[in-house]
Amino acid sequence: MMELPATRAGHIGRALSATAILLFLAMPIVIILVTSFGADGIGTFPPKEYSTRWYEQMAAPGGNWATSIALSSLIAALTTVFSLILGVTAATALARGRLPLHAAVYGLVLAPLLIPQVVIALGLFLFFEPAGMLGSPLAIALGHTVLAAPVAVLIMISTLRGIDERLEDAAASMGASRMTIARRITFPLATPGLIAAAVFSFITSFDEFFIAQFMSTPDTRTLPVLVFNALQFDVDPTVTAVSAVLIALAILALALVALVRKLGGNRNGQGVLPVEPLS
Fold first, then answer.
1. pTM (2 decimals)?
2. Structure-derived torsion over alpha carbons of residues 227, 73, 125, 229, reported in degrees to the nearest 10
3. N- to C-terminal Cα distance for the chain?
4. What is the pLDDT of residue 144?
5. 74 with 139: CB under 8 angstroms?
6. Does residue 109 contact residue 145 with C-beta atoms inside 8 Å?
7. What does the alpha-carbon distance between residue 268 and residue 72 come to, in Å, rounded to a whole number?
8. Distance of CA 108 to CAs 105, 117, 159, Å?
9. Per residue in 1-24, pLDDT tens?
10. Where exactly are the transmembrane stretches of this chain (predicted)?
11. Which of 165, 189, 141, 159 is nearest to 87 (CA)?
């Protein structure tokens, strides 16, 4: 099929259309960022005066916001560890193993991504409430792992399938054990995927609301729960500062993942077999 030559007007029209779409999508983020520096107490846009008072209030030691941020960070860190353990184990079995009912196991692992989060939250509440673990950071982290682990599994499966299995076969033919192959070849090559899985697991836990809402107590409120309460029962402009920080963290996390993947791709292109004996 003959393609029509692109005209200068067509290029300009597509560029303007793409720019307008991007500006429309970025507009809420820009409004939040600008409003977070407003000095008034009702969060107007555009602000009449500018100040950093809401950022100072958010970071005030011993305040509700600082306590919630610390709690969410702890829970997200625990979730990341649990998700990586489960993700690496399940991804290795699914990508390299010969499991019976492979498709059914794969679907079961990814099922939490399809089930509404409020259903999962209710189930976890009914499970942990009799054990008296509501409000426990460990219990909330285990609940978040239900949502974060499938994301880690997807990333690790993609990473492991991108590694040339002939490198592992060559190491095995030279007498290397499975543990040595994993430690010296598989995991070094899978480092970009591991970092990406850790970043997305952390973000998934840090931003999760339903499970934290069902399992929190008045003394243990994660950051999303505190933001929800602040918006529902009061007008607190500190929420705009918190949102701006979360936006910045998300951008930094995505930039980190992109950088690690780029560096990992360059490294893999320069040869990956270690020069030291594997045995």
1. 0.81
2. -10
3. 58
4. 94
5. no
6. no
7. 35
8. 5, 16, 20
9. 444 456 777 778 888 888 899 888
10. 21-45, 65-91, 103-128, 134-157, 185-206, 239-260
11. 159
Beta carbons within 8 Å of 153's beta carbon, 6+ residues apart: 86, 87, 90, 91, 94, 109, 110
Q: Model confidence at 218, in pLDDT bands (50, 70, 90)? A: confident
Q: Which amino acid is at 141?
A: A
Q: At CB < 8 A and 24+ separation, what contacts does 68-73 make?
A: 68/221, 68/222, 68/223, 68/225, 68/226, 69/223, 71/137, 71/220, 71/221, 71/222, 71/223, 72/205, 72/206, 72/222, 72/223, 72/224, 73/206
In whole angstroms, give the CA distance from residue 200 to residue 207. 11
Q: At what angle do helices 137-161 and 117-128 cross, to 10 degrees?
A: 130
Sign of the dihedral through C-alpha 196, 197, 201, 202: negative
Q: Evaluate if residue 164 carries a pLDDT over 80.
A: no
Tokens of 265: 């791709």
Tokens of 121: 């939250």
- Whole-angstrom Cα distance, residue 23 to residue 25? 5
Distance of CA 251 to the CA centre of its chain: 11
Nearby residues of 208 by Cβ (< 8 Å), 6 or more positions away: 117, 144, 147, 222, 224
Q: What pLDDT, in 10s, does the model give residues 172-210?
A: 888 777 788 777 888 888 888 888 899 999 999 998 899
Position 202, amino acid: F
